[in-house]
Amino acid sequence: MGRRNGCFQLLLTLVLLSACSTNPATGKQQFTALMSPQQEVQVGAEEHQNVLKEFGLYPDQKIQAYVQEVGAKVSRNTERPDVRYKFFLLDSPIVNAFALPGGYIYTTRGLLSLANSEAELAAVLAHETGHITARHSAERYSRSVVTMLGAAVLSSALGDSTVSDALGMGTDLYIKSYSRGQENEADSLGIRYLSRAGYDPRSMSGFLRNLQNDTALEARLNGQNGASSSSMDYFSTHPATQERVAKTITEAGQYPQQGVVNRDDYLMRISGITYGESASQGFVRGQTFYHPELGFQFTMPSGFHIMNQPQQVIGTSQDGSLIVFDFLPNTDGLAPLNFLQSVMLKGRSAPDLEKISINGFSAATASFNGTANGKAMVIRLIALAWGRDRIARFQLAYPSNLPAAKLTALRSATYSFGPMSETDRKRIKPYRLITVTSKSGDTVASMAQRMPFDTLKEDRFRVLNAMGPRDEVVPNRLYKVVVE
To answer: Which top CATH class is 283-427?
Structure first.
């Protein structure tokens, strides 16, 4: 085993020494030999289709063109003219932006809603451009392949496949997030590209500060004490600290400070953009989830926190109860009872498997003892026929000692499932973000009162407009508000 490991270390050292190159953007040596620029283009093109399938493009060609225009400005004078940079606006309420190898750069309408100037949007796109010019994806991929190779050699030497499995999982996590060094490099390059494009380089730190405020607000709205737990938000892939914000402020000071900001023009351009979930994704109003495009609705029990995710809707309660709703394909056209037994239960028996009817729809249910989040729970499954080739599924988990009133509320949630009326489909619309001009006498409270939220209206208004806790509304100035 010692000889094997020694040979591998020698081979690894020779590979690293012979395959390092100098990056033209950073001026640093990096190991990217296992993903060539040509492979970057191929990987990016393949993954681009998956991104479009998962999120979809925001269906507004004017705003799409605007994002592409701003992106073209910040990517025009990079150190990698061989890359064809492409910018896309995704139809997602999550505040995020990311880049794929080969020049594919994405931002979301959620991020556009939070930004307060063209310069801030440019800062985000410039940062993502920096990840591409620094070849961070190629660097992470090349190092991960070497890590997996090492795991395979070590696993073979020890005769234990769990070593390879463990290291493989670590590699997967490494690929999915940027290191602190890579984030700092992308910030530095982004500020450089901002300045070259004529934008105010201080806009990057300004956006990062407001992003921190937004994350803290989301945590409060979700009943958390810390940062947002979303696996898809900006900070999950771009960890930001006070140190990082301070660093961007210092670096921006090394460039001319009289760059373009374009606040008012930006706010007018994004006025009318969808805010939060769209009709194609479904959205929550109060305790009811509506999906106008598919034409159904159901109501969660009072006190449940509702999360609308791309593939499912989740309701959680402080007593540990859980409701998960999603759709499953029913290509064989099975009746709900047969589908529940053969597909959802995988042929296992359940003591109270039975047919039921929910608002005229054929359905079936079963319950059994199980676990959820590591705790013993009663699990109840409901399968409901929705069209010829689709099953609507509810999965409930709740403590065995749940009071009768709460059990009734859980049952009512599943039995509330039904079609939306045509009146409701026309009446209930997604929220929109609009731009308004403040008048003399307007205050944070009066402006925030226009928004259709039940809690923290003033806090939402301040974060949306990058206002500090003591900032006041200025007359004849543009502000963002959310309306129905």
So the answer is: alpha beta
